[in-house]
Amino acid sequence: MKLYDRLSIKQKQVVWAWTFLAVPVVFYVVIRFYPTFDAIVLSFQSWNMLEARQWNGFDNYATLFADPVFWKVFQNTFLYLIIGTPTSLIFSFLIAYHLDKTRFLHGFLRALYFLPFLTSTVAMAWVWRWFYQPVPVGIFNSFLSSAGISQVPFLNSTTYALPAVLAPAVWAGLGFQIIIFMAGLRAIPISYYEAARIDGVSNWTILREITLPLMRPTIVFLVVFSSIGFLRIFDQVFNMTTNNPGGPLNATKPLVMMIYQTAFNSFDMGYAAAQTVVLFTVLLIVSLIQLRLLRDR
Amino acid sequence: MTDTQIKPSADALMRGPAGGGAVKPGLDPVRVIRWTLLAMGAIVMVMPIIYMLSASVKYPHEMFETNIIPESPTFFNYGRVLEDGRFYRWFLNSLVIATVTTVSAVFFDALVGYALCKFKFRGRYLVFIAILSTLMIPTEMLIIPWYMMARNFGWLDTYWGIMFPGMMTAFGTFLMKQFFETVPDDFLEAARIDGLNEFQIWWSVAMPLVTPALSALAIFIFLGNWTAFIWPLIVTTSQELYTIPVGLTTFSVEQSIQWELIMTGAALATIPTLVVFLIFQRYIIRGVAMAGLKG
């Protein structure tokens, strides 16, 4: 205590800072940095959890790139990204834009749109799976058949399975994006709109020239946030295809599911680690490209 | 974006629609059509939740009819799901895990955010960047090393094993640092003169000033842990340690799929968050708006 009293104010600050940071620094080193490093190291090794870890150079990566299942999975993962992100952003922007102009029961409507965001992904994957069942179980097919249209084998078709798995992911994320878009819309000073209206500018021009450019930070955030979500899709796929993991002929299998199966069904840890490194690289590249494209123009 | 722009906008969301311009009296056809379409969209959005709740109060024979209101609502399915006993346990597990993780993460995220914002010391930028950089690392990449770590330390199939990766979050640290920037240094200086030590200043002066941010963060972290799936699935092996999402998966694999029981389980997993939302609606929506704008 005496030693502490003799310190200058500046030195005391340093002592306090590291007192505050001591436990967190240990946490980040042990639970975040070391495992990241370990995953990269493991991707150059082979290990089945029983014998010792053995170096095998780039073998895991070579195997991976020669594996047709990997390329199918890679394609699926990108389909989730390039269908999911624009669909969810366009829908949520349209809804937010119009909801922002609505007064009657505004809060109630907003709450209804937001509700799906609060549900458990796994629980809702099962609800949607139920909807997709054939007649007489599934609701979608019941409606189709009562309208005289032939049934759609949603989850058992190589064409429809991927969109069918993606739908609940888009559905559940909309509420969050709508709220963020609405907050972004409200951040634009009303005076801009008033000035535009005095100049007699059309709504469409206001949207294109004022609203969208000023919303750029919000749009950048949501594009990056939501595409990372779609690239990491897993819960829906796992729960909607439990009897045939990854869908018919791997039609719905995303990269994270391949990682899960390689690591915890086949216990091929080095190979799985190589897949995680690929996932990491893809996430990084996609986010960097998006930031570059959306930030400056 | 500056803070002066952001804070009012999250609050503006709560005042109800602004939109600009005066409210026109009477029924404008454009507004009527817009409202009708939005209302229809909203109904479509909640349909899966309604159907889930409806199925959970139907008798099995009525399950496959498309009517939403059951002929004779019953809690029969809830009885069947709960009499099994495991569901209580999973519910309790989820509750304990989500609560403990939330308390820990909010505490440490605020502590680190404050230290990085209000103390001047060498290396603070480095620590901040290092923590922020972990945001780029997907959880999936860490899962295998975490599993090995948990296995070596005997953490597999324990509460601690499920919780340890989430005890602090980089996103929360970043968010809290941003919010502590809005706390004036004068307040802290005044407390320092009053003889409070730095921990007391953080806890009893700075923390109350950022309560909205703390609650927003707490909601996010709680929700994230309540619905977390992949890590609890991997780290638990005995059914007593399952969380609700993991438990739900086993419900169906056994024997043939009994949809009314799965829907009841799904409803039980969802109802708590729905109830919390109905009570704290405006805070939750404001919190999401704030967190999103800050992030």
What this model shows, in words?
- The complex is a heterodimer of chains A (297) and B (295).
- Chain A folds into two domains: 2-42, no CATH class; 61-294, MetI-like fold.
- A two-stranded antiparallel sheet of chain A has the order 1-2.
- Helix content of chain A is 71%, strand content 1%.
- Chain A is mainly α and 297 residues long.
- Chain B folds into two domains: 3-56, no CATH class; 77-294, Orthogonal Bundle (MetI-like fold), CATH 1.10.3720.10.
- Chain B has helices at residues 3-12, 29-56, 76-83, 86-118, 124-133, 139-152, 159-163, 170-180, 185-193, 198-209, 211-226, 230-235, 244-253, 259-294.
- With 295 residues, chain B is mainly alpha-helical.
- In chain B, helix 9 (185-193) packs antiparallel against helix 10 and helix 13 packs antiparallel against helix 14 (259-294).
- At the A-B interface, helix 2, helix 4, helix 5, helix 6 and helix 7 of A face helix 1, helix 2, helix 4, helix 5 and helix 6 of B.
For the record, give the distance between the C-alpha atoms at the N and C termini of chain A, rounded to a whole number: 57 Å
Largest sheet of chain A: 2 strands, antiparallel
Q: Which H/E pattern describes the elements of chain B?
A: HHHHHHHHHHHHHH
Most residues in contact: chain pair:
A-B, 104 and 104 residues
Which regions of chain A are unreliable across 5 or more consecutive residues at pLDDT < 50?
Answer: none
